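One thing: could you explain this record?
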Amino acid sequence: MSIDALLLARIQFAFTISFHIVFPALTIGLASYLAVLEGLWLKTKHQVYDDLYHFWIKVFAVAFGMGVVSGLVMAYQFGTNWSGFSKFAGGITGPLLTYEVLTAFFLEAGFLGVMLFGLRRVGPGLHFMSTVFVALGTLISATWILASNSWMQTPQGHEIIDGRVVPVDWLAVIFNPSFPYRLLHMVVAAFLSTALMVGASAAWHLLRGRDSAPVRTMLKMAMGMVLVTAPIQAVIGDFHGLNTLEHQPAKLAAIEGHWENKPGEAVPLILFGVPDMQAEITRHAIEIPNLGSLLLTHTLDGQFPALKEFPPEDRPNATVVFWSFRVMVGLGLLMILLGILALVTYLRGRLHSSKPLLRFALAMGPAGLIAILAGWITTEVGRQPWVVYGVMRTRDAVSAHSFEQLAVSLAIFVVVYLFVFGTGTVYLLRIIGKGPHTGERAHPVEGGPGEMRQPMRPLSGAPEQLEGASPANQRGDQ
Protein backbone atom coordinates (compact mmCIF):
# COMPACT_ATOMS: atom_id res chain seq x y z
CA MET A 1 0.00 0.00 0.00
CA SER A 2 1.40 3.39 -0.96
CA ILE A 3 2.10 6.07 1.60
CA ASP A 4 -0.32 8.35 -0.29
CA ALA A 5 -3.20 5.97 0.34
CA LEU A 6 -2.21 5.71 4.00
CA LEU A 7 -2.22 9.48 4.28
CA LEU A 8 -5.68 9.68 2.70
CA ALA A 9 -6.99 7.09 5.15
CA ARG A 10 -5.66 9.18 8.03
CA ILE A 11 -7.13 12.38 6.58
CA GLN A 12 -10.52 10.73 6.14
CA PHE A 13 -10.61 9.53 9.74
CA ALA A 14 -9.40 12.92 10.97
CA PHE A 15 -12.10 14.65 8.92
CA THR A 16 -14.96 12.51 10.23
CA ILE A 17 -13.82 12.52 13.85
CA SER A 18 -13.36 16.31 13.75
CA PHE A 19 -17.01 16.71 12.78
CA HIS A 20 -18.09 14.14 15.36
CA ILE A 21 -16.23 15.39 18.42
CA VAL A 22 -17.89 18.81 18.27
CA PHE A 23 -21.38 17.44 18.90
CA PRO A 24 -20.60 15.08 21.83
CA ALA A 25 -18.66 17.91 23.46
CA LEU A 26 -21.76 20.09 23.28
CA THR A 27 -24.12 17.36 24.47
CA ILE A 28 -21.87 16.56 27.45
CA GLY A 29 -21.88 20.19 28.52
CA LEU A 30 -25.49 20.94 27.65
CA ALA A 31 -26.87 17.85 29.37
CA SER A 32 -25.25 18.85 32.65
CA TYR A 33 -26.31 22.47 32.12
CA LEU A 34 -29.91 21.35 31.60
CA ALA A 35 -29.79 19.26 34.77
CA VAL A 36 -28.57 22.29 36.71
CA LEU A 37 -31.27 24.52 35.22
CA GLU A 38 -34.09 22.09 35.97
CA GLY A 39 -32.76 21.50 39.48
CA LEU A 40 -32.65 25.23 40.14
CA TRP A 41 -36.18 25.62 38.82
CA LEU A 42 -37.50 22.82 41.07
CA LYS A 43 -35.75 24.33 44.07
CA THR A 44 -36.50 28.03 43.55
CA LYS A 45 -39.52 28.00 41.19
CA HIS A 46 -38.00 31.00 39.43
CA GLN A 47 -39.45 31.18 35.93
CA VAL A 48 -36.12 32.19 34.39
CA TYR A 49 -34.61 28.73 34.91
CA ASP A 50 -37.65 27.08 33.34
CA ASP A 51 -37.39 29.41 30.35
CA LEU A 52 -33.72 28.63 29.85
CA TYR A 53 -34.35 24.91 30.17
CA HIS A 54 -36.97 24.93 27.42
CA PHE A 55 -34.70 27.02 25.21
CA TRP A 56 -31.49 24.99 25.53
CA ILE A 57 -33.19 21.61 25.33
CA LYS A 58 -33.90 22.41 21.67
CA VAL A 59 -30.21 22.99 21.02
CA PHE A 60 -29.36 19.81 22.90
CA ALA A 61 -31.80 17.77 20.81
CA VAL A 62 -30.24 18.90 17.52
CA ALA A 63 -26.66 18.44 18.76
CA PHE A 64 -27.49 14.99 20.13
CA GLY A 65 -29.06 13.88 16.84
CA MET A 66 -26.09 15.03 14.77
CA GLY A 67 -23.66 13.47 17.25
CA VAL A 68 -25.29 10.05 16.94
CA VAL A 69 -25.27 10.16 13.14
CA SER A 70 -21.64 11.30 12.87
CA GLY A 71 -20.55 8.74 15.47
CA LEU A 72 -22.07 5.82 13.58
CA VAL A 73 -20.30 6.81 10.37
CA MET A 74 -16.99 7.18 12.16
CA ALA A 75 -17.26 3.79 13.88
CA TYR A 76 -17.69 1.96 10.57
CA GLN A 77 -14.27 3.16 9.45
CA PHE A 78 -12.59 0.85 11.93
CA GLY A 79 -13.74 -2.03 9.77
CA THR A 80 -13.47 -0.42 6.35
CA ASN A 81 -10.24 1.61 6.53
CA TRP A 82 -8.48 0.19 9.59
CA SER A 83 -9.10 -3.55 9.46
CA GLY A 84 -5.51 -4.27 10.51
CA PHE A 85 -6.06 -2.36 13.73
CA SER A 86 -9.44 -4.02 14.34
CA LYS A 87 -7.90 -7.46 13.89
CA PHE A 88 -4.93 -6.68 16.11
CA ALA A 89 -6.54 -4.66 18.92
CA GLY A 90 -10.23 -5.58 18.63
CA GLY A 91 -9.94 -7.76 21.72
CA ILE A 92 -9.64 -4.57 23.78
CA THR A 93 -11.29 -1.78 21.82
CA GLY A 94 -14.32 -3.92 20.91
CA PRO A 95 -15.35 -4.73 24.51
CA LEU A 96 -14.70 -1.14 25.64
CA LEU A 97 -17.05 0.22 22.97
CA THR A 98 -19.56 -2.50 23.85
CA TYR A 99 -19.46 -1.42 27.50
CA GLU A 100 -20.28 2.11 26.32
CA VAL A 101 -23.37 0.82 24.51
CA LEU A 102 -24.49 -1.37 27.42
CA THR A 103 -24.13 1.42 29.98
CA ALA A 104 -24.16 4.93 28.53
CA PHE A 105 -26.12 4.42 25.32
CA PHE A 106 -28.84 2.31 26.93
CA LEU A 107 -29.11 4.80 29.80
CA GLU A 108 -29.45 7.73 27.40
CA ALA A 109 -31.88 5.87 25.15
CA GLY A 110 -34.03 4.91 28.10
CA PHE A 111 -34.46 8.43 29.45
CA LEU A 112 -33.91 10.70 26.45
CA GLY A 113 -37.49 10.33 25.26
CA VAL A 114 -38.84 11.22 28.70
CA MET A 115 -36.50 14.20 28.86
CA LEU A 116 -37.45 15.56 25.44
CA PHE A 117 -41.14 14.67 25.25
CA GLY A 118 -42.28 13.88 28.78
CA LEU A 119 -42.65 17.38 30.18
CA ARG A 120 -46.47 17.12 30.06
CA ARG A 121 -46.70 13.39 30.68
CA VAL A 122 -44.68 12.72 33.85
CA GLY A 123 -44.23 14.49 37.15
CA PRO A 124 -41.48 17.09 37.67
CA GLY A 125 -39.44 14.78 39.89
CA LEU A 126 -39.38 11.95 37.34
CA HIS A 127 -38.59 14.37 34.54
CA PHE A 128 -35.69 15.85 36.51
CA MET A 129 -34.41 12.33 37.17
CA SER A 130 -34.51 11.66 33.42
CA THR A 131 -32.48 14.79 32.71
CA VAL A 132 -29.92 13.79 35.34
CA PHE A 133 -29.64 10.27 33.91
CA VAL A 134 -29.13 11.59 30.39
CA ALA A 135 -26.37 13.88 31.70
CA LEU A 136 -24.85 10.93 33.56
CA GLY A 137 -25.04 8.86 30.37
CA THR A 138 -23.02 11.43 28.42
CA LEU A 139 -20.31 11.34 31.09
CA ILE A 140 -20.24 7.53 31.15
CA SER A 141 -19.98 7.51 27.37
CA ALA A 142 -17.00 9.87 27.53
CA THR A 143 -15.40 7.60 30.13
CA TRP A 144 -15.46 4.48 27.93
CA ILE A 145 -14.38 6.33 24.78
CA LEU A 146 -11.49 7.99 26.61
CA ALA A 147 -10.51 4.66 28.20
CA SER A 148 -10.22 3.13 24.73
CA ASN A 149 -8.30 6.03 23.24
CA SER A 150 -6.06 6.38 26.29
CA TRP A 151 -5.13 2.71 26.05
CA MET A 152 -3.97 3.39 22.49
CA GLN A 153 -1.80 6.21 23.87
CA THR A 154 -0.41 4.40 26.93
CA PRO A 155 -1.20 0.67 26.51
CA GLN A 156 -0.94 -1.73 29.42
CA GLY A 157 -2.74 -4.75 30.89
CA HIS A 158 -2.40 -6.88 27.74
CA GLU A 159 -0.32 -9.55 26.07
CA ILE A 160 0.30 -10.16 22.37
CA ILE A 161 -0.59 -13.76 21.48
CA ASP A 162 -0.51 -15.03 17.89
CA GLY A 163 -0.23 -11.49 16.57
CA ARG A 164 -3.25 -10.16 18.47
CA VAL A 165 -3.72 -8.16 21.64
CA VAL A 166 -5.27 -10.17 24.46
CA PRO A 167 -6.39 -8.40 27.67
CA VAL A 168 -5.01 -9.97 30.84
CA ASP A 169 -5.96 -7.24 33.35
CA TRP A 170 -9.04 -5.17 32.51
CA LEU A 171 -8.50 -2.74 35.39
CA ALA A 172 -5.02 -2.01 34.03
CA VAL A 173 -6.41 -1.65 30.51
CA ILE A 174 -9.09 0.83 31.57
CA PHE A 175 -7.10 2.74 34.18
CA ASN A 176 -4.01 3.09 32.03
CA PRO A 177 -1.47 5.82 32.91
CA SER A 178 -2.94 8.62 30.78
CA PHE A 179 -6.65 7.84 31.30
CA PRO A 180 -7.39 10.04 34.37
CA TYR A 181 -5.75 13.10 32.85
CA ARG A 182 -7.31 12.69 29.43
CA LEU A 183 -10.80 12.07 30.85
CA LEU A 184 -10.69 15.12 33.11
CA HIS A 185 -9.20 17.24 30.34
CA MET A 186 -11.95 16.29 27.87
CA VAL A 187 -14.90 16.62 30.28
CA VAL A 188 -13.75 20.02 31.55
CA ALA A 189 -13.17 21.08 27.93
CA ALA A 190 -16.77 20.11 27.13
CA PHE A 191 -18.10 22.16 30.07
CA LEU A 192 -15.90 25.10 29.11
CA SER A 193 -16.91 24.95 25.43
CA THR A 194 -20.59 24.88 26.36
CA ALA A 195 -20.17 27.81 28.74
CA LEU A 196 -18.47 29.84 25.99
CA MET A 197 -21.27 29.02 23.54
CA VAL A 198 -23.96 29.96 26.08
CA GLY A 199 -22.09 33.16 26.92
CA ALA A 200 -21.71 34.05 23.24
CA SER A 201 -25.44 33.53 22.72
CA ALA A 202 -26.26 35.87 25.60
CA ALA A 203 -23.76 38.46 24.33
CA TRP A 204 -25.31 38.28 20.86
CA HIS A 205 -28.76 39.13 22.17
CA LEU A 206 -27.58 41.83 24.57
CA LEU A 207 -25.59 43.57 21.83
CA ARG A 208 -28.80 43.70 19.79
CA GLY A 209 -30.81 45.21 22.62
CA ARG A 210 -32.65 42.01 23.55
CA ASP A 211 -32.22 42.47 27.26
CA SER A 212 -34.30 40.05 29.35
CA ALA A 213 -34.00 38.09 32.57
CA PRO A 214 -33.21 34.77 30.80
CA VAL A 215 -30.47 36.38 28.70
CA ARG A 216 -28.91 38.08 31.73
CA THR A 217 -28.99 34.84 33.70
CA MET A 218 -27.45 33.00 30.76
CA LEU A 219 -24.52 35.40 30.61
CA LYS A 220 -23.93 35.38 34.36
CA MET A 221 -23.96 31.59 34.62
CA ALA A 222 -21.74 31.18 31.55
CA MET A 223 -19.11 33.69 32.65
CA GLY A 224 -19.07 32.17 36.13
CA MET A 225 -18.43 28.76 34.61
CA VAL A 226 -15.62 30.14 32.43
CA LEU A 227 -14.06 31.89 35.44
CA VAL A 228 -13.95 28.61 37.39
CA THR A 229 -13.20 26.01 34.73
CA ALA A 230 -10.61 27.80 32.56
CA PRO A 231 -7.92 27.93 35.31
CA ILE A 232 -8.80 24.36 36.37
CA GLN A 233 -8.30 23.24 32.77
CA ALA A 234 -4.85 24.86 32.74
CA VAL A 235 -3.85 22.95 35.88
CA ILE A 236 -5.15 19.66 34.44
CA GLY A 237 -3.26 20.40 31.24
CA ASP A 238 -0.03 20.85 33.19
CA PHE A 239 -0.45 17.47 34.89
CA HIS A 240 -1.35 15.91 31.54
CA GLY A 241 1.84 17.34 30.06
CA LEU A 242 3.97 15.82 32.80
CA ASN A 243 2.24 12.48 32.20
CA THR A 244 2.99 12.79 28.47
CA LEU A 245 6.65 13.52 29.25
CA GLU A 246 6.84 10.29 31.23
CA HIS A 247 5.01 7.99 28.83
CA GLN A 248 5.26 9.65 25.39
CA PRO A 249 8.47 11.71 25.44
CA ALA A 250 8.71 11.96 21.63
CA LYS A 251 5.29 13.63 21.52
CA LEU A 252 6.31 16.09 24.23
CA ALA A 253 9.55 16.91 22.44
CA ALA A 254 7.59 17.62 19.25
CA ILE A 255 5.14 19.82 21.16
CA GLU A 256 8.05 21.86 22.48
CA GLY A 257 9.98 21.91 19.19
CA HIS A 258 12.93 20.62 21.23
CA TRP A 259 15.57 18.95 19.05
CA GLU A 260 18.62 18.42 21.24
CA ASN A 261 20.00 18.85 24.74
CA LYS A 262 23.28 20.67 25.17
CA PRO A 263 25.42 19.50 28.10
CA GLY A 264 24.79 21.55 31.21
CA GLU A 265 22.33 23.91 29.54
CA ALA A 266 18.74 24.50 30.53
CA VAL A 267 15.93 24.07 28.02
CA PRO A 268 14.22 27.28 26.88
CA LEU A 269 10.52 27.54 26.19
CA ILE A 270 9.95 28.20 22.50
CA LEU A 271 6.93 30.45 22.22
CA PHE A 272 6.84 30.54 18.43
CA GLY A 273 8.85 29.05 15.62
CA VAL A 274 8.75 26.75 12.62
CA PRO A 275 9.99 23.19 13.30
CA ASP A 276 11.84 21.85 10.25
CA MET A 277 11.67 18.05 10.16
CA GLN A 278 14.34 17.74 7.47
CA ALA A 279 16.90 20.15 8.94
CA GLU A 280 16.07 19.00 12.51
CA ILE A 281 15.85 22.52 13.89
CA THR A 282 13.13 24.98 14.87
CA ARG A 283 13.56 28.02 12.66
CA HIS A 284 12.79 31.61 13.72
CA ALA A 285 12.41 30.50 17.32
CA ILE A 286 11.30 33.05 19.91
CA GLU A 287 12.50 31.66 23.24
CA ILE A 288 12.24 32.33 26.95
CA PRO A 289 15.44 31.00 28.63
CA ASN A 290 15.09 28.27 31.27
CA LEU A 291 11.28 28.30 31.19
CA GLY A 292 11.02 24.94 29.37
CA SER A 293 13.06 23.31 32.13
CA LEU A 294 10.99 25.01 34.83
CA LEU A 295 7.63 23.95 33.38
CA LEU A 296 8.51 20.35 32.55
CA THR A 297 11.10 19.39 35.18
CA HIS A 298 10.21 21.98 37.85
CA THR A 299 13.89 22.94 38.04
CA LEU A 300 15.79 25.81 36.42
CA ASP A 301 18.34 23.64 34.64
CA GLY A 302 16.61 20.26 34.12
CA GLN A 303 16.54 18.53 30.75
CA PHE A 304 14.04 16.23 29.06
CA PRO A 305 14.32 13.96 25.99
CA ALA A 306 14.80 15.76 22.68
CA LEU A 307 13.65 14.72 19.20
CA LYS A 308 17.15 13.78 18.01
CA GLU A 309 17.25 11.10 20.71
CA PHE A 310 14.58 9.18 18.77
CA PRO A 311 15.06 7.56 15.34
CA PRO A 312 13.58 9.70 12.52
CA GLU A 313 11.00 7.01 11.77
CA ASP A 314 9.72 7.23 15.37
CA ARG A 315 9.19 10.99 15.44
CA PRO A 316 5.76 12.61 15.08
CA ASN A 317 5.25 15.55 12.74
CA ALA A 318 6.66 18.31 14.94
CA THR A 319 5.42 21.13 12.70
CA VAL A 320 1.76 20.13 13.09
CA VAL A 321 1.95 19.23 16.78
CA PHE A 322 3.95 22.35 17.69
CA TRP A 323 1.33 24.71 16.26
CA SER A 324 -1.83 22.80 17.19
CA PHE A 325 -0.67 22.81 20.81
CA ARG A 326 -0.08 26.56 20.72
CA VAL A 327 -3.51 27.19 19.26
CA MET A 328 -5.02 25.24 22.15
CA VAL A 329 -2.95 26.98 24.82
CA GLY A 330 -3.43 30.42 23.29
CA LEU A 331 -7.19 30.03 23.29
CA GLY A 332 -7.03 28.71 26.84
CA LEU A 333 -5.23 31.85 27.99
CA LEU A 334 -7.89 33.99 26.30
CA MET A 335 -10.56 32.00 28.15
CA ILE A 336 -8.87 32.76 31.48
CA LEU A 337 -8.68 36.43 30.48
CA LEU A 338 -12.39 36.44 29.59
CA GLY A 339 -13.30 34.99 32.97
CA ILE A 340 -11.23 37.60 34.81
CA LEU A 341 -12.65 40.50 32.79
CA ALA A 342 -16.18 39.18 33.36
CA LEU A 343 -15.55 39.11 37.13
CA VAL A 344 -14.22 42.68 37.08
CA THR A 345 -17.18 44.02 35.10
CA TYR A 346 -19.61 42.08 37.31
CA LEU A 347 -18.14 43.64 40.45
CA ARG A 348 -18.53 47.05 38.80
CA GLY A 349 -22.17 46.26 37.98
CA ARG A 350 -21.61 46.41 34.22
CA LEU A 351 -21.59 42.74 33.23
CA HIS A 352 -24.66 43.06 31.00
CA SER A 353 -23.87 46.49 29.58
CA SER A 354 -20.12 46.45 28.85
CA LYS A 355 -19.95 46.32 25.06
CA PRO A 356 -16.21 45.44 24.94
CA LEU A 357 -16.82 42.46 27.23
CA LEU A 358 -19.89 41.37 25.27
CA ARG A 359 -17.98 41.57 21.97
CA PHE A 360 -15.13 39.59 23.52
CA ALA A 361 -17.58 36.94 24.80
CA LEU A 362 -19.23 36.74 21.37
CA ALA A 363 -15.88 36.32 19.61
CA MET A 364 -14.92 33.56 22.06
CA GLY A 365 -18.08 31.55 21.34
CA PRO A 366 -16.40 28.94 19.10
CA ALA A 367 -13.05 29.10 20.94
CA GLY A 368 -13.76 26.07 23.14
CA LEU A 369 -14.62 23.81 20.20
CA ILE A 370 -11.59 25.04 18.23
CA ALA A 371 -9.39 24.32 21.25
CA ILE A 372 -10.85 20.81 21.51
CA LEU A 373 -10.04 20.15 17.84
CA ALA A 374 -6.51 21.54 18.31
CA GLY A 375 -6.04 19.35 21.38
CA TRP A 376 -7.15 16.21 19.54
CA ILE A 377 -4.81 17.04 16.65
CA THR A 378 -1.99 17.40 19.16
CA THR A 379 -2.65 14.11 20.89
CA GLU A 380 -3.40 12.04 17.76
CA VAL A 381 -0.71 13.40 15.42
CA GLY A 382 1.70 13.36 18.35
CA ARG A 383 1.13 9.61 18.78
CA GLN A 384 2.34 8.91 15.25
CA PRO A 385 3.82 6.83 13.74
CA TRP A 386 2.03 4.51 16.19
CA VAL A 387 -1.66 3.64 16.24
CA VAL A 388 -1.06 1.81 19.54
CA TYR A 389 1.90 3.62 21.04
CA GLY A 390 5.06 1.51 20.93
CA VAL A 391 3.07 -1.60 19.95
CA MET A 392 1.57 -1.21 16.46
CA ARG A 393 2.52 1.22 13.71
CA THR A 394 -0.15 3.09 11.78
CA ARG A 395 1.02 1.70 8.44
CA ASP A 396 0.31 -1.83 9.73
CA ALA A 397 -3.21 -0.90 10.87
CA VAL A 398 -4.66 0.35 7.60
CA SER A 399 -6.77 -1.67 5.15
CA ALA A 400 -5.37 -2.52 1.71
CA HIS A 401 -7.28 0.07 -0.30
CA SER A 402 -5.91 1.86 -3.34
CA PHE A 403 -5.24 5.56 -3.58
CA GLU A 404 -8.15 5.98 -6.01
CA GLN A 405 -10.62 4.23 -3.70
CA LEU A 406 -9.70 6.38 -0.73
CA ALA A 407 -9.67 9.56 -2.82
CA VAL A 408 -13.22 8.92 -4.05
CA SER A 409 -14.56 7.99 -0.60
CA LEU A 410 -12.89 11.04 0.98
CA ALA A 411 -14.42 13.33 -1.64
CA ILE A 412 -17.86 11.84 -1.01
CA PHE A 413 -17.43 12.28 2.75
CA VAL A 414 -16.47 15.93 2.32
CA VAL A 415 -19.46 16.73 0.10
CA VAL A 416 -22.03 14.83 2.20
CA TYR A 417 -20.70 16.07 5.54
CA LEU A 418 -20.58 19.70 4.47
CA PHE A 419 -24.17 19.46 3.21
CA VAL A 420 -25.70 17.44 6.07
CA PHE A 421 -23.83 18.88 9.02
CA GLY A 422 -23.54 22.30 7.45
CA THR A 423 -27.34 22.40 7.22
CA GLY A 424 -27.63 21.08 10.77
CA THR A 425 -25.22 23.69 12.09
CA VAL A 426 -27.10 26.51 10.36
CA TYR A 427 -30.33 25.18 11.90
CA LEU A 428 -28.63 25.03 15.30
CA LEU A 429 -27.42 28.62 15.03
CA ARG A 430 -30.89 29.70 13.90
CA ILE A 431 -32.42 28.26 17.07
CA ILE A 432 -29.78 29.96 19.23
CA GLY A 433 -30.31 33.22 17.34
CA LYS A 434 -34.00 33.31 18.33
CA GLY A 435 -33.09 33.37 22.01
CA PRO A 436 -35.10 32.37 25.07
CA HIS A 437 -38.51 33.85 25.78
CA THR A 438 -40.21 34.50 29.08
CA GLY A 439 -42.84 31.89 29.83
CA GLU A 440 -41.57 29.57 27.08
CA ARG A 441 -43.09 26.12 27.25
CA ALA A 442 -42.40 22.85 25.50
CA HIS A 443 -43.93 22.53 22.03
CA PRO A 444 -47.09 20.40 22.06
CA VAL A 445 -46.69 16.94 20.59
CA GLU A 446 -50.16 15.49 21.04
CA GLY A 447 -51.21 16.09 17.42
CA GLY A 448 -54.79 15.90 16.26
CA PRO A 449 -56.88 17.65 13.60
CA GLY A 450 -54.98 20.64 12.30
CA GLU A 451 -52.18 20.08 14.78
CA MET A 452 -48.56 19.19 14.22
CA ARG A 453 -47.94 15.43 14.34
CA GLN A 454 -44.19 15.02 14.76
CA PRO A 455 -42.25 11.74 15.05
CA MET A 456 -40.63 11.05 18.39
CA ARG A 457 -36.99 11.56 17.37
CA PRO A 458 -34.31 13.70 19.03
CA LEU A 459 -34.52 16.36 16.31
CA SER A 460 -38.26 16.60 16.98
CA GLY A 461 -37.35 18.20 20.28
CA ALA A 462 -36.48 21.37 18.34
CA PRO A 463 -39.67 22.03 16.33
CA GLU A 464 -38.51 25.24 14.69
CA GLN A 465 -39.95 26.06 11.28
CA LEU A 466 -37.47 26.65 8.50
CA GLU A 467 -37.75 29.92 6.63
CA GLY A 468 -40.40 29.77 3.94
CA ALA A 469 -41.91 26.46 5.09
CA SER A 470 -45.68 26.30 5.09
CA PRO A 471 -47.65 24.94 8.05
CA ALA A 472 -48.87 22.06 5.89
CA ASN A 473 -45.32 21.00 5.14
CA GLN A 474 -44.46 21.17 8.82
CA ARG A 475 -47.31 18.88 9.89
CA GLY A 476 -45.65 15.86 8.35
CA ASP A 477 -48.97 14.68 6.86
CA GLN A 478 -47.93 14.67 3.19
